[in-house]
Amino acid sequence: MSKLTIPEVLVRVAGLDSRIYSVDGETITEALRALCQRHPQLEQHFFHDSGQVKEHFMLVVDGALAAPDAPLPEASELEVLLAASGGSGSTELPHLSNDERARYARHIMLPQVGEDGQRKLKAAKVLIVGTGGLGSPIAMYLAAAGVGTIGLIDFDVVDQSNLQRQIVHSITTVGTPKVSSARRRLRDINDQLHLVTYDAELNEENARDIIPEYDVIIDGCDNYATRYLINRVTRKYGVPYVYGAIFQFDGQVSVFLPGRGPCYQCLHPEAPPPAIAPNTNNKGVFGVLPGVVGLLEATEALKIILGIGDLLAGRLLIYDALSMRFREVAFRARPSCRACGATVEELCL
Predict the structure, then answer these.
(1) How far are the Cα atoms of 129, 269, 321 from residue 162, in angstroms, in the given order?
(2) Is residue 184 helix, strand or coil?
(3) What does the pLDDT average to over 217-222?
């Protein structure tokens, strides 16, 4: 007996009460036939008049894509996925191979993603500024999710003290450039990625050349100056900016959409003086905190690419690890903002 899971849409159109069934069959086709004998209304959806399984389904056995006549091992898990769910099949997006369909099957089965959504991820270009505590989980999960092009910019080298929280690096890469270390790890996660690395600091000279090449910019840096620079350049070129910051046990996340709401400088008009500015180098950071905040940033970036959900635009999400509480602070554009207000200072641009 095997477990068979069918798409939610078939449950609705066939008037069923469950997506999951126990079925017998030596092959995938036989298992589908067995289900149709119990629920004849499924026959027209699964099979052509010739008896062949319809081609718009993907058949996944124990996590691997399989053909309709493939054997079905005892006690296996068979999933039927709609290959074309989630979009209209735009020819402008890159196509997915059968291997990619199998790899991203858990994404594709989500109606909010579907195959077209996965193709959007494959076509997307995301720049991560910093490959440290925040950049590590961001890069690893975007690589696993199938983002096609990931840019990494960082001027630093891996230090032993980084390994407590910067999980993209390892003991074997101590002393090497962080972007090289991260490249090695991301290749292990997904060898189909297009990785672009910049062993440099993001500055006034290179930001105008690098940032416009990407669809989303994600903040993995640790200083106000770089964030103000990202904010100005993303506003100028209309690139969404996902912000994240950490200090000791606290984290913050927000999203800034140029021309559609407040910007980073609306939230932080000026950097605090050095005496009170958060600094993880001399005040410390809880090792797992960057993982939580980085994954929230990665989540917002994927939502931007897919065009789904409610983004954190105009909302600052604050996380307190000690109390395990999240809270939100709403904020609006400042008319006097030097980056996006009525009188804009084009600093160094």
Answers:
(1) 16, 30, 20
(2) helix
(3) 95
Mean pLDDT of 282-303: 94
Q: Which CATH class is domain 2-82?
A: alpha beta
CA dihedral sign of residues 241, 128, 213, 304: negative
Arithmetic mean of pLDDT over the chain: 90
Return the residue matching tokens 């993907």: 58
Q: What is the CA radius of gyration of the chain?
A: 24
For 124-330, the fitting CATH number among 3.30.1130.10, 3.30.460.80, 2.40.110.20, 3.40.50.720 is: 3.40.50.720
Tokens 């606290």 correspond to 250
Measured CA to CA, the distance from residue 265 to residue 144 in angstroms comes to 32
Per-domain residue ranges for the chain? Answer: 2-82, 124-330
Q: Which two tokens stand for residue 11?
A: 């449950």
Query: How does pLDDT run across 80-125, given as a tens digit for each residue?
Result: 886 543 443 444 789 999 899 999 999 999 999 999 999 999 999 9
Gap between the Cα atoms of 292 and 298, Å rounded: 10
Global confidence as pTM? 0.75
